[in-house]
Every structure is written in C-alpha cells, then in structure tokens.
Amino acid sequence: MSETKSLPKKYPKIQKDLVKILIPGQRIQRRIQALAREIRKDFPAEPLHLVSVLKGGVFFLTDLARSISGEVSFDFIAVSSYGKNTKSSGQVRLTRDLDSSIEGRTVIVVEDILDTGMTLQYLLRIFQQRKPKQLRVAVLLDKPERRITAVQADYVGFTIPNEFVVGYGLDYAERYRNLPYVGVLRLASEAKKAKVEE
Ligand code: PRP
After folding, report:
1. Which of 79, 85, 119 to mutate to test the pocket of ligand 1 (most atoms within 8 A of CB)?
2. Cα separation of 168 and 178, whole Å?
3. Alpha carbon distance 37, 115 (integer Å)
4. Sign of torsion over alpha carbons 186, 191, 197, 198
5. pLDDT at 157 exceeding the cut of 70
6. pTM, whole model, 2 decimals?
7. Position in ligand 1 atom list of the atom nearest CA 81
C-alpha cells in the first residue's frame, strides 16, 4: 500500500489546510493491533499499566488499551514544555501528576510522537525514580531526524520524515487533533502558493 493517499472529499475545509494524508486511519488501526499483540507477547501474564501524556497521546492510548488482551489499567500525566523552541533547553515541567503509584508495576509510557525526545527523557527519569517493575515506551510516530537526546522507544508505530504532522491526537494550535488519520499540515508559505493556484 502506498504511504500517502489523497484527501477524502468529506473534509473540504481540512483539504485546504493539509498537503496530504501521511497515514490513513485504517492503517493506524491495523498497526495498533499489531503493536498490542507484540506488547502482550512480551509480557504474557503481566497486568500492564499504560501511562499517557496529555493531550496528544490520548487517542493512541485508548485504541491501544482496547487492543491489548488481558489485564490493562491506565493513568495520565501532563507536562508543560514552554513551547517547542525552549523545549530544547530542557525546560520540561510536570503540571499534572499520575493518580496512582507505579512502584512495582509494569508500566508502558504511551506517546503520540517522539520528536526531540526531551519530554520522554524527562518522564523516564522521574518514572525510574518511582521504582516500577519494568518500564517501556510505545510511540505511534517516531521522527528520528529531530532527536536531540538518546531516548528510544521500545515499540514504534511508524517512523516518519521531518514534516509537520497533525491528526490522531497531534495538533496545530489545538486544532486537527480529532482527525482519524495523520496528515501533513500545509505551511503558511505553501498556503499562499495554493491560494494563487486555486
Ligand atoms: C507533543 C507530544 C509529546 C511531545 C514530543 O506534545 O505529545 O508529548 O510533544 O516532543 P519532544 O520529543 O520534542 O519532547 P505537546 O508538547 O505538543 O503537547 P500536546 O500533547 O498537548 O499537544
């Protein structure tokens, strides 16, 4: 199957905002089923505690949680990154902590995207201090070209190029999170060009 697909006609407004669909919704769902099987195979008899980072990771968490067989629980954490630019200076701050302790539990951190790796580096450091039995990372999207840390995910849905992606939890100014697919956002310069070409 090809990597990209033309935009469905039922999203006429979105069609103007996006360059293309990078990963169709059905492909995301199929990949999540496979990841869920892989995770359960690695931990056949373990209760699994999924921890997602608000807000982007929520869609991936709910689909993954429903696809993993056996005992699964989940919790949420939120961090403030002071915007993408300052994130590279390492200023990640906890704004909402987990509801329950992760000590002695098998924890899987569930993220929508691994970009610079600053968020995960911070989270893994604080989670390790809380003595989980095992700690793993599942990301739907991995953008290795942007990485400035040594962080790696144990489970990766898709490795993607360095493009501004939205949908399936990922936003631009809080928009597009609800799209069932991952698309590439049309940048302002391209939008101008598209307007001329219309
Ligand atoms: C996104 C994403 C990750 C983080 C990854 O969150 O959900 O948490 O960025 O980037 P990094 O690898 O460079 O740290 P964002 O800060 O955009 O917040 P959101 O989930 O609320 O959209």
Report:
1. 119
2. 6
3. 25
4. positive
5. yes
6. 0.88
7. 16
